[in-house]
Design a protein that fits this description.
CATH superfamily of the largest domain: Type I PLP-dependent aspartate aminotransferase-like (Major domain)
Helix content: 40-55%
Strand order of the largest sheet: 2-8-7-6-5-3-4
Radius of gyration: 21 Å
CATH topology of the largest domain: Aspartate Aminotransferase, domain 2
Number of helices: 14
Strand content: 5-15%
Largest sheet: 7 strands, mixed
Bound molecules: pyridoxal-5'-phosphate
Distance between the termini: 47 Å
CATH class of the largest domain: Alpha Beta
Structural class: alpha/beta
Number of strands: 12
Shape: globular
Amino acid sequence: MEEAQRLLKLPIYVFAQLDKLKAEQAAKGADVIDLGMGNPDIPPPPEVIEALIKAAGNPENNRYPSFEGAPEFKTAVAEWCKRQYGIKIDPENEVVTLIGSKEGVVHFTLAYVNPGDFTLVPMPAYPAHFRGTILAGGEPIALPTTEHRNYLPDLKIIVPGIAAKAKIMFLSYPTNPTGALAPREFFEEAVAFCKKHQIILVHDFAYAEIYFEGKKPISILSIPGAKDIAIEFHTTSKTFGMPGWRCGFAVGNRELIESLRKIKTNLDYGLFTTVQKAAIAAFSLKNGYTDRVRATYQRRRDVFVDGLNSMGWKIKKPAGTMYVWIPVPQGFDSTEFTMHVLDKTGVVLSPGVAFGDVGEGYVRAALVAPEERIIEALDRMKKAKITFNG
Ligand SMILES: Cc1ncc(COP(=O)(O)O)c(C=O)c1O
């Protein structure tokens, strides 16, 4: 049976492949330290689990939820956005619930991209930012980013012919996989660029709460006029340690929200009401949970980057996310180095090429294991004489 073109055109999903290799190592009895996927290990707040259990006991919550989200959920989202990011959201028309932000970003792409359309994607990127375009039959245009420009794309080099055919620009800061943040001036430039060329601006704000040294990232919707063209995707996966719960939301321009709702009504039935109730409890917490999550990731980051730097690397500490972007030593490409490290140490990393071609030459570590396991990973690398020579 021949798969549809949209599937055949997709590059291999490296994380699915990595899962297989990990399972093989574990079957061989290896003590695997998994720093591969950005799969948070910090448990959700107990208040949220209590709210989940309570809501699960109400039979009414077992029924299909409303497509767009319960009014209380949407109001809680609007309050959270006001409190955390200083942005004004109309809960009625400017919010939609998502079964995780990945689902939302990809379905949003399907709602707007026609075959032949371009999208603009700073690379290296979270794969859903370019794979959604390929699924829609469009062409993601890579805007290469480097450490030299703090992983911000240079919008001035986008030629008019490309801008004219571009439907969406995808931004996401703090950014996966490099951990960079975007300053307000860059967001202002991006909003002006997208308005000038009538391009939809998607901001994936998955790491909104994972930032360090008090340098808080901003919402794209805090830029004046952004709501004319922008939609922002949020998730409880990283903020509240709820990746398996599949809970997210989008906020922003009401027309864009309406199109996302429209496509989703044809695909799913919205977010489990019980999970919505638990998320409402998360949004209203004022017990310093997110401060503790940040402090935990910051300690892990410091231990890991200091450890690598003592082995020959010269890595700057990332400003946000739970990732460290690591140059590959000479003699390996990113996939070979990932396999080498897994084979010699049982430590799982992600090859940079999974984040687009410009990710070649790097691997990503996700700091989703306790500090002692991160120290253990470094010790194993040291013992295996894995150092940086380039
Ligand atoms: C940039 C970015 N957006 C979205 C997601 C997925 O989030 P969710 O669990 O809400 O689907 C991830 C997960 O790693 C991510 O890195």
